[in-house]
Amino acid sequence: MMTIAKNSVVVLDYELKVDGQVVDSSAGHEPLAFIHGTGALIPGFSSALDGLKSGDKKSFVVSPEDGYGILDQEALRKYDINDFPGDVDLTPGAQLFFETEDQMEIPCFIKEVNGNEVTIDFNHPLAGKELHFNVEIREVRPATEEEKAHGHVHGAHGHHH
Ligand code: ZN
After folding, report:
1. All domains of the chain, ordered by start, with CATH?
2. What is the pTM of this model?
3. For the chain, how far is it from start to end, CA to CA, in angstroms?
4. How far apart are CA 13 and CA 36, in angstroms?
5. What is the pLDDT of residue 61?
6. 151 alpha carbon to ligand 1 midpoint, in Å?
């Protein structure tokens, strides 16, 4: 039976818990389908799958360094409340998109509001967190040449085109 290696197509169900809470899961959705080893997934998740085969279940923990990164204090930036349009939700935890000079939209979060000072957090929301994964492998097969060229999976759980 084929085991997961570089350029395997992997179809799996997963659950992600952070601080004891389920924050993401394929339950009730399509399973996750991807080409292994293309760098599309966080490194700690990808490396934990090496050598698994269809039917295998695995629980593992990914450290922040191998997940969404450690918390960067320099990614906390302060702005004046008057710099925000009146209709922006400034509740701590609310997500905003910060537009850069070259029109890129960067997701960020309200950290806190202190008088006229608004602290915005540009860290990924899961930065600094240990990620607790449960996975169940549904399918492992070699990627076709076309899938490798496109960089994504075709067929039942992948792209239709
Ligand atoms: Zn394609």
Report:
1. 8-68+127-150 (3.10.50.40), 73-121 (2.40.10.330)
2. 0.81
3. 29
4. 15
5. 98
6. 7
